[in-house]
């Protein structure tokens, strides 16, 4: 074997080793960096959530003082109110919004709304009830921001802690509402029907979220809360509210200052437990960041050693690669500087084309010069596009847009074109120049991207299903069943596409349901069922703010696919055609597949039993028109059922 051949093979082996080690190094480094970035992002998220919780607490205190101030006709609570305002304002000033963190609180918007509300309170324009409601709306908007922040936390342990903490925050909010309303009532020494109803609503909400917290919280935090709940101030607060609701005239025996002071201590005790929660959060986040930093440092040292070895083994190859990369970079710049150019007369007759134009079109320069520019026009392009082009040129304005052209061999290509009329000294059009960039590959990639997006939606939908130990084929079948029903029902093409693509996300809200409930093999207890049913609203809240038609469809489907035609469904008890057609269609598709599939809590139903159930529930659970379409086109449903069978999955 010749030396030159051996040398070539050795160089080839070294090159392969160099590439393999470089790829491994980049992969490891990128993975470690992503881990650190995720930990730091989690730290940023917790910081934003902590700020949100602190603002909510201070607003709750200010709400109670403002209600008392207005309820007493401006005679009480002003010193305390002024002090609380200064405290909250200082906290808002100290918060520096993180422009890189989209989850941080909008301090400017909050400060503006709060100052407007304070000005109205100072002028004693609203009543105690109106001020109470205004503060509550402001608090609820921030609580909604908290829920959104929690929903996008990917750290499972942290998200579970934050969900339990959300219920603790809801307990404090209910107590704050009771305090504010009771403060207004005691200050006036008068039984106000509106305030009475608010107190009753707040007490009912308190009972619900307290029980939910005890279910979701870890034993250590649940025991801490139970110990807190038997303290004298806490018992006094809840008992006083209970006595007032059963005997409204008891308010005349309540000292307003004592009530506010004692209930504030009770609420502060809940706030103290919140701080303990955040200590838990800090411990988890700090540990995550420290571990990620250590891993990154070790990774950097490893990569450094690796590159030293590679440098020693392949210096000449590296130089050759650098030379090649530089040469390729020059080629890239040369391509970037090139454009597809043509010139025509005002009537569209071609007078000039450059080489890239000839290359992409397949025509020679001789074949193009003197021809009308329609020679490369593709029949797929509508008359409206060309009418728009000539309208802009006629008005002596440039036109920019995407055009599909036809090559000499009949194939097509896409260009991003800018067409400019060139004016002479008399402001008349002398010629028209068109500068284009070939975007054919981009168009093809876009088409592939749309398909990838559809696949991603299927994967997102599978998240909710896999958490409840259901096959991912469920969401595929539901999507296909929904497409069939939407088509037979006569929906528009865009609606059919959005429904088909969004229906896999019908149960995405299950990501917010604890595993202990979601994966329970036996029947759910009433309080567990109450939590389970919230998955519809969780999914709706996840999508409702989006402007995307696809995600708007997902919001409708997640919110309404458990509604029933006779009004007995949830979460809102909608009836008949008040239920969006997307919800009615997905309900049929989801139930048909769920009944025919085996789950952790049931066996699969035979198709005959499902048919009997659908006939029985026609006009009750399901839209009768959709049921009739289902049976009329049953063969298509069974074909989908067979194609995406559980056995194949």
- Main β-sheet, spatial strand arrangement: 2-1-5-4-3
Largest sheet: 5 strands, antiparallel
How far from one another are the termini?
A: 54 Å
Shape: globular
Rounded Rg = 34 Å
Integer count of domains: 3
Output the helix-strand order: HHHHHHHHHHEEHHHEEEHHHHHHHHHHH
Walkthrough of the structure:
- It is a single chain.
- Helix 1 runs antiparallel to helix 2.
- The chain contains 24 helices and five strands.
- By secondary structure, it is α+β, with helices and mostly antiparallel strands.
- It folds into three domains: 44-285, no CATH class; 339-438, Beta-Lactamase (2-Layer Sandwich); 444-643, Hypothetical protein af1432 (Orthogonal Bundle).
- The protein has helices spanning 3-71, 78-94, 107-122, 128-151, 156-188, 193-216, 219-229, 232-246, 256-313, 315-337, 355-361, 365-368, 383-394, 440-467, 473-489, 493-502, 515-518, 526-533, 535-543, 549-560, 581-595, 607-617, 624-632, 634-643; strands at residues 340-344, 350-353, 399-406, 412-423, 429-438.
- The two termini are 54 Å apart.
- Residues 1-7 and 98-103 have low confidence and may be disordered.
- A five-stranded antiparallel β-sheet has the order 2-1-5-4-3, with helices on both faces.
- Helices cover 69% and strands 6% of the residues.
- A hairpin with a 5-residue loop joins strand 3 (399-406) and strand 4.
What would you say about this model in short?
The chain is of the alpha+beta class and 649 residues long.
SSE arrangement:
Elements: H1 3-71, H2 78-94, H3 107-122, H4 128-151, H5 156-188, H6 193-216, H7 219-229, H8 232-246, H9 256-313, H10 315-337, E1 340-344, E2 350-353, H11 355-361, H12 365-368, H13 383-394, E3 399-406, E4 412-423, E5 429-438, H14 440-467, H15 473-489, H16 493-502, H17 515-518, H18 526-533, H19 535-543, H20 549-560, H21 581-595, H22 607-617, H23 624-632, H24 634-643
Antiparallel strand pairs: 1-2, 1-5, 3-4, 4-5
């Amino acid at each position: 074997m010749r030396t030159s051949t051996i040398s070539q093979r050795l160089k080839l082996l070294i090159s392969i080793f160099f590439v393999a080690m470089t790829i491994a190094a980049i992969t490891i480094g990128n993975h470690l960096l992503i881990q650190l970035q995720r930990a730091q992002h989690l730290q940023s998220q917790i910081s934003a959530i902590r700020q949100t919780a602190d603002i909510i607490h201070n607003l709750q205190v200010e709400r109670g003082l403002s209600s008392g101030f207005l309820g007493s006709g401006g005679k009480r609570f002003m010193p305390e109110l002024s002090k609380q305002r200064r405290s909250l304002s200082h906290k808002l000033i100290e918060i520096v919004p993180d422009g890189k963190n989209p989850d941080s609180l909008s301090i400017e918007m909050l400060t503006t709304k709060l100052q407007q509300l304070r000005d109205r309170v100072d002028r004693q324009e609203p009543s105690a009830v109106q001020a109470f409601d205004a503060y509550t709306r402001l608090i609820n908007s921030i609580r909604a921001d908290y829920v959104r922040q929690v929903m996008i936390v990917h750290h499972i342990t942290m998200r579970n802690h934050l969900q339990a903490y959300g219920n603790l925050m809801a307990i404090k909010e209910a107590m704050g509402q009771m305090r504010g309303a009771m403060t207004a009532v005691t200050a006036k020494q008068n039984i106000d029907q509106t305030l009475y109803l608010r107190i009753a609503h707040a007490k009912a909400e308190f009972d619900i979220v307290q029980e939910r917290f005890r279910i979701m919280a870890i034993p250590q935090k649940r025991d801490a809360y139970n110990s807190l709940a038997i303290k004298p101030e806490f018992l006094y607060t809840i008992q006083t509210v209970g006595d007032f609701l059963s005997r409204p005239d008891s308010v005349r025996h309540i000292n307003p200052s004592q009530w506010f002071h004692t209930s504030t201590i009770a609420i502060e005790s809940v706030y103290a437990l919140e701080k303990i929660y955040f200590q838990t959060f800090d411990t988890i986040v700090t540990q995550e960041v420290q571990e990620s930093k250590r891993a990154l440092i070790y990774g950097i040292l490893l990569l450094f050693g690796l590159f030293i070895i590679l440098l020693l083994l392949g210096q000449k190859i590296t130089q050759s690669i650098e030379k090649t990369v530089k040469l390729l970079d020059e080629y890239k710049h040369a391509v970037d500087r090139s454009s597809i150019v043509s010139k025509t007369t005002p009537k569209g007759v071609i007078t000039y084309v450059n080489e890239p134009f000839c290359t992409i079109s397949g025509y020679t320069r001789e074949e193009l010069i003197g021809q009308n520019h329609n020679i490369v026009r593709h029949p797929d392009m509508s008359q409206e596009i060309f009418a728009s082009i000539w309208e802009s040129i006629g008005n002596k304005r440039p036109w920019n847009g995407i055009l599909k052209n036809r090559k000499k061999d009949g194939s097509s290509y896409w260009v991003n074109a800018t067409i400019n009329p060139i004016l002479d000294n008399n402001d008349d059009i002398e010629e028209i120049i068109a500068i284009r960039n070939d975007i054919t590959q981009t168009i093809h990639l876009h088409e592939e991207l749309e398909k990838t997006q559809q696949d991603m939606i299927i994967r997102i939908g599978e998240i909710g299903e896999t958490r409840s130990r259901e096959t991912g084929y469920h969401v595929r079948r539901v999507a296909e069943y929904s497409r069939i029903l939407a088509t037979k029902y006569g929906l528009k093409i865009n609606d059919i596409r959005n429904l088909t693509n969004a229906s896999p996300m019908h149960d995405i809200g299950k990501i917010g349901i604890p595993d202990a409930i979601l994966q329970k093999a036996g029947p759910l207890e009433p309080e567990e069922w109450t939590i389970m049913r919230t998955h519809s609203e969780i999914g709706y809240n996840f999508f409702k703010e989006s402007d995307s038609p696809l995600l708007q469809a997902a919001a409708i489907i997640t919110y309404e696919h458990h509604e029933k035609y006779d009004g007995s469904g949830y979460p809102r008890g909608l009836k008949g055609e008040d239920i969006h057609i997307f919800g009615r269609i997905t309900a049929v598709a989801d139930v048909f597949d769920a009944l025919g599939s085996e789950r952790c809590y049931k066996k699969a139903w035979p198709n005959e039993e499902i048919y009997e159930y659908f006939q029985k529930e026609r006009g009750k659970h399901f839209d009768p028109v959709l049921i009739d379409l289902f049976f009329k086109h049953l063969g298509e449903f069974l074909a989908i059922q067979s194609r995406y069978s559980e056995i194949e999955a």
